[in-house]
Amino acid sequence: MHGAGNDFIIINNIAGDIPEKDYPRLAQKLCAYHTSIGADGLMVIVKAEGSGDYGMRFYNSDGSLGEMCGNGARCISRYGYENGLAGEVQKVETTAGLVTGERLSPRIYRVRLNDPSVIELNKKVIIDEKEITLSYIVLGDPGIPHAVVNMPELDEWDRDELRELGRKLRFYSGFPKGANVNFVKLVSENTLKIMTYERGVEDFTLACGTGSGSSAAVFHMLGLVSDKNIKLLNSGGELSVDLTEDKGKIYDLYLSGPTNIVCEGEILDEDLI
Questions:
Q1: I need a surface site. Which of 42, 58, 121, 151 has the fewest CB within 10 A?
Q2: DSSP assignment of 51-112, as one string?
């Protein structure tokens, strides 16, 4: 499946046939584009441990465990609905906490992202002896870390140079767990263009759901966009964010957008035996 170009392999393991210790190796193998299916990440559906309808374990293409994935959660909500795991509103247990998914139409799904546990606006960092101003935000606890760079000149940057800057910011020593890096440009009223360098993928992806939510929250806190129907123009498609702010805190952070089922089938890879 993919959500606005952010693509995932989904495996239903509620029966527990696949040992959890094998998940990282499966992610590395199956997400490789030239020797397997290829994807940004692997999502494994597991039995709920608490009040959720089911659980989700998300692994980046390099095999590292991710706390949560916004577009992945939207895709897995569609999978859950269409495969009878939950109704039109469902609760998904993730490493970052409980996420609520909602079916808006056959292909449009919305999730309530984890509330930010950290928001640091206009943070100064030094990269290659140059000062860069960005904002740091963490969704959930333990959360998903994002750096948001307000970059009006985004379209003027060479993509390779921007990728290198993204890589350096992703590994910046001041970020405890590293960070996904979002380069964002305000293109019109309530509309943002965004490019996200994702940790675990170690490159730009066509879309990032938590990156879009984090960027919308930061730009709202900076007074540059409103709190409803914020459009995020990702390379792979358009996402929409709604949020609520109260006394400097962001909550009810909703991400909406398209989902697409690409294929269903059986993995026959002989190298997995």
A1: 121
A2: SSSEEEEEEETTSPEES--HHHHHHHHHHHHHTTSS-SEEEEEETTEEEEEEESSSSEEEEE
